[in-house]
Each structure stands twice: as structure tokens, then as C-alpha cells.
Automatic annotation (TrEMBL):
EC assignment: 3.5.3.23
Keywords: Arginine metabolism, Hydrolase
GO biological process, one term: L-arginine catabolic process to L-glutamate
Protein name: N-succinylarginine dihydrolase
Matching SUPFAM superfamilies: Pentein (SSF55909)
Gene: astB
Amino acid sequence: MASKAVEANFDGLVGPTHNYAGLSWGNVASKSNVNLIANPREAALQGLAKMKRLADLGYVQGVLPPHERPHMPTLRALGFEGSDQQMLEAVARSEPSVLAAVSSASAMWTANAATVSPSADTADHRVHFTPANLSAKFHRSIEHPVTGRALKAIFSDESYFAHHPALPSVSQFGDEGAANHTRLCSDYGAPGVELFVYGQEVFNESGPAPRKFPARQTLEASRAIARLHGLADSHRVFAQQNPAAIDAGVFHNDVIAVGNGHCLFYHEQAFLDEAQVLADIRARLTGAELQPVRVTSAQVPLADAVASYLFNSQLLETAEGMMLAVPGECREIASVSQYLDELLASGGPITAVDMFDVKQSMRNGGGPACLRLRVVLNEQELAAINRGVILDDALYERLVTWVNAHYRDQLSQADLADPMLLEEVRKALDELTGILGLGSIYDFQR
Ligand SMILES: NCCC[C@H](NC(=O)CCC(=O)O)C(=O)O
């Protein structure tokens, strides 16, 4: 019999170097907001406010820590030498884009931190984690070692949790984590169907692929994760993303689809073969009927879906039905706002819409769903995790005070070379690992 389980959300706490560097070719917002002055303090507080509201609604809400940035070990690996100050000066002078890359706060988007398979689906009945190699973008490819350490520090009990290293960091095994992975089930504790969505089958050179923007996730990577996690055929479906959607700016599947329980909310242009995806899920889903909520291009054109991030919402189970936690931008775009009214009038399965202001993150292409990693945990597993990262009123207050004490309210590209910024970050993160009870996870602490 399946034991009672919950879906916990682990949000990335926005780091003190949050900035707009235009690093993500294929991500429309990142490119169009390059060089804007960022407000790291506001970004972190917006993220914390979202976490708090969901915790107050009764969801299990966790916090994943930001990473150490600028990342000096990466600069050393690239041949920069001397003191921290000398290295920052040299890289700012000779290769400012490298400085921007090693300074990005991109670890905030924890939907890309890892792929997680709940114990009800896996062969050894443990929860499996694989940090994403994020090999498509240099600034993100340096995240997985610290992500892996943080996950191990939180989910440390090996009798419940299995941790795999990231896949080989090459484009053929490009893996972007949970942003391309959705689990459908009748009940969280019951065996589910894990939908892996990929951009390209890379070893098949004649297969369909985007022409303009890169496919960050490969079928080969998705298959490897499913193997590592011990997912039998009855628990997994592989589906190709529509290449035209990638070329329209849908760089991850979670920009065009989101699922939870037996509900799949998606745009008609999300998948290369929509009918096959639905049939494959239906053939495997037990204990419930799949409830697709399909949005047409006539209702919401693809460009409006990308601009509003309608599908980058959190779909959350409530006592009455499903709630869609949307970014505020959804009410600013006429087609999307009208669609949301129609959705609410349609009588389910989505019965509520809640709005969240995460504008600082949105300007870099990260909505509510990008900011969280979902981990389904049964009662024993939930009891076994490190509770220091679970948000309650006291932790929320402590983190708000911490942000206000350590974060700047303005950050430009030029500021990244400021040696004071590095000092501020280290001081803040050293304090944070104490607050969250994580031990020494950062390179500067080792
Ligand atoms: N899931 C949302 C991820 C957004 C992220 N943006 C960035 O890294 C932009 C950073 C910048 O341009 O400064 C990305 O594209 O991977």
C-alpha cells in the first residue's frame, strides 16, 4: 500500500550577485534585458515572499542556498592568477564575459538543479537525485558540484536517498534537470509516470531539431537519467519538444507545459507529437484518468505564452482542485489574462489562480516554476531530511533580516569586478550555511 506522501517545493534563494548579463542565447528575456541594473535585494525578497505564501497555504516549502559567486576556483582553472583582487581586475579587463559568467546567480532557478524521482517509481524504492550538468551554458555548467553537495547535505540518509553525479558535461548529454521532467500520478505516494521532454535526439543527425536556438536537453541524457534512477518502462515516457517552440524562445519545456497529479496543462504547440504523448501517458498512468488542459494558439499565441510565462506557473494541489500560481506578467498580456478568466470559468480541474511578483527573476527568463525544485516525499522520507532548510515563520524572518543585512539594492555589470562584492558574498554565505545547518558546502569554506 502506498504511504502518504507530499510534494515539497525547494526554491532557490536568489544570490547577492543577481544581475542581467545576457548570458542565455535562446532565452528571450535574458537577451533583451542585458545590462539593466539589477536589484539583488528585491529579487531575493520577491523569492522569499513566494516561498512564504506557499508555506502559509500549508505546502512543505524548502530553501536551496545560492552559490558562491564570482566563482574564483573557475577563474583559477582558466589560468587567472594572484590574489582575488588581481584576478578580478585581470578578468574584468581581458574577458568581461567570463567574469559575468562566473558571477551569475543562476543557481536560483532550481527547476534546473536536478532531476528527482520519487521512491514510488524507482527500482530500489529510494528517492533518486541527479544534478543537471547544464552543459549548454558555461555560466550554468559550473553549478552542479555545489548543487550536488547541497542536495546531499539536505537529503543525507542513504537508506532513503540516492545521489548520482551529473552526466558527462558535453552537449550530447546536455541535461537541464526538472525543467524538462514532469511527474503524473493518481496520488503522490502511488507509482507515477515520469515524462521526460527533450529538445533533440543528438546521435540521430537526421532527426527533427530546432534551427535557430539550441536544444539544451537531449534524449540521450533523459534516457541516462531514467536508467540511473531505475525507472521501468511502465514509469517513464520520453517525448520530443516541438522544435518550432524552441525556436520561438521555449528553451525549457516548463516554459510551455506544467503537470501535477493527473493534470497536464500545456500549449498545443508544446510537443512534436501531442497525440502520442497523451497516449503514452494514458497507457502507463494507473489509478486515475489523465486530465489534459490544452491551450490553443488561437487562445494564447506562442509569443504571448513566452512573454507572459503562463506555463511557467506552479500547478499545486488544493482541497478544491488545482491552483495555478502565475507570474504577475500574465495579467499584463491581454490574450493570457482573458484565457485565465476563461480557465476559471471552465469548472476545473484548475479552480484557482494566484499571482506572484517575481519580476527580478522574470527579466532573466525565470518564472515561479523555474524557481522551484519539486521533491515528492513520503512520511518517513520527510522525517529523514535536514529540517534546517524548511521554511517556517522563524526561518522566513531570519532570512529576510539576512538579505537586508547583506544584499545590495543595485548591481551593474561593472560592479562584478568590485572585490568588496566578493567579500560581502562570502560573509553572507558563511552566515547562511549556519542558518540553514548545511555545514561547509562552499569552496571558500573548505
Ligand atoms: N529556468 C529558467 C532559467 C533561466 C536562466 N537564465 C539565465 O541564466 C540568464 C542569466 C543572465 O543572462 O544574466 C537560463 O537561461 O538558464
